[in-house]
Design goal:
Blueprint lengths: L6 H12 L5 E3 L2 E2 L10 H5 L26 E3 L2 E3 L18 E3 L7 E2 L12 E3 L7 E2 L12 E3 L18 E3 L21 E3 L22 E3 L18 E3 L7 E2 L12 E3 L7 E2 L12 E3 L20 E3 L27 E3 L24 E2 L6
Parallel strand pairs: 4-5, 5-7, 6-8, 7-9, 9-10, 10-11, 11-12, 12-13, 13-15, 14-16, 15-17, 17-18, 18-19, 19-20
Antiparallel strand pairs: 1-2, 3-4
Organism: Nyctereutes procyonoides (Raccoon dog)
Subcellular location: Secreted, Extracellular space, Extracellular matrix
Protein name: Biglycan
């Protein structure tokens, strides 16, 4: 008689494979980032997986009697969160695929902590006190695709990450440097979330991202003063919000021609040099809110696929009739469905209706609410 798999397990595995980086509130509650979805693992990385979700037909519990004290074990899911653990527990079933160790007091990952866990697909170590990782700690994890090790005390990227890794979330640590070669051999990686670290532009060694074919990268809430020059050319999404970037110069975006979404909100940007956006022909969404811009950036009408522009909470005083839409019909391939201009000192009654001739609906335009 075929085994019936509980709906909660199927849903949790799907959530784990599709979640986008941001704040993780619980093992089964991965907060989805709003807007465009990330490509799935197979599309973005070329990894030899099906959908990124473990094969449910292979989920046959063969070590069901093994479960660490205090943990909850069901099928191949082992939950040991919020137990005050000082170390990775022993007696973890060798066929475990999802291991949750978040919200504990683990300070070190030792050489044999994950010994025998050759089938592990996802490892959650969020919100511990990890400051030291043995160079062979991850060696047994030959099938690991998801490593969530955010909110710890790490000062460097862990060494010898599994070559099978697809997604790394290491935000909110104490990392100041990304050396060359730290990601070598990770040809399946498509997503890195490393915001909330005290990273400056000088902290990225030349060639630090060599060999990576990333789809998604977030370096928000760091100490960047400019757009990093040496990130992977394959990026579809780049998030640099909540930094100290003051300007976008002509060639800052030159190598990022495949971007769909660019996040530059909550910086100190006063100037975007003419022509700098022309290197982003496939851009669909641009976040420039909460900066110090005094005008709408030039070049927006030439971005034929651009659909969403966030410009609220700047110092924009004027909106021209051709600031957003190209002259003539048939030039733009996708109409805008979102333009935010609220909280700018714009005399909105002076903005001509034709300014938004390439917007799908007038409700897509957000004006008003400016306070000095």
């Amino acid at each position: 008689m075929p085994t019936m798999w509980p709906l909660w397990l199927v849903a949790s595995l799907l959530a784990l494979s599709q979640a986008l980086p941001f704040e993780q509130k619980g093992f089964w509650d991965f907060t989805l980032d709003d807007g465009l979805p990330m490509l799935n693992d197979e599309e973005a990385s070329g990894a030899e997986t099906t959908s990124g979700v473990p094969d449910l037909d292979a989920l046959t519990p063969t070590y069901s009697a093994m479960c660490p004290f205090g943990c909850h074990c069901h099928l191949r899911v082992v939950q040991c969160s919020d137990l005050g653990l000082k170390a990775v527990p022993k007696e973890i079933s060798p066929d475990t695929m999802l291991l949750d160790l978040q919200n504990n007091d683990i300070s070190e990952l030792r050489a044999d902590d994950f010994k025998g866990l050759h089938h592990l697909y996802a490892l959650v170590l969020v919100n511990n006190k990890i400051s030291k990782i043995h160079e062979k700690a991850f060696s047994p994890l030959r099938k690991l695709q998801k490593l969530y090790i955010s909110k710890n005390h790490l000062v460097e990227i862990p060494p010898n990450l599994p070559s099978s890794l697809v997604e790394l979330r290491i935000h909110d640590n104490r990392i100041r440097k990304v050396p060359k070669g730290v990601f070598s051999g990770l040809r399946n990686m498509n997503c890195i979330e490393m915001g909330g670290n005290p990273l400056e532009n000088s902290g990225f060694e030349p060639g630090a991202f060599d060999g990576l074919k990333l789809n998604y990268l977030r370096i928000s809430e760091a100490k960047l003063t400019g757009v990093p020059k040496d990130l992977p050319e394959t990026l579809n999404e780049l998030h640099l919000d909540h930094n100290k970037i003051q300007a976008i110069e002509l060639e800052d975006l030159l190598r990022y021609s495949k971007l769909y979404r660019l996040g530059l909100g909550h910086n100190q940007i006063r100037m975007i040099e003419n022509g700098s956006l022309s290197f982003l022909p496939t851009l669909r969404e641009l976040h420039l809110d909460n900066n110090k811009l005094s005008r709408v950036p030039s070049g927006l009408p030439d971005l034929k696929l651009l659909q969403v522009v966030y410009l609220h909470t700047n110092n924009i005083t004027k909106v021209g009739v051709n600031d957003f839409c190209p002259v003539g019909f048939g030039v733009k391939r996708a109409y805008y469905n979102g333009i935010s201009l609220f909280n700018n000192p714009v005399p909105y009654w002076e903005v001509q209706p034709a300014t938004f001739r390439c917007v799908t609906d007038r409700l897509a335009i957000q004006f008003g609410n400016y306070k000095k």
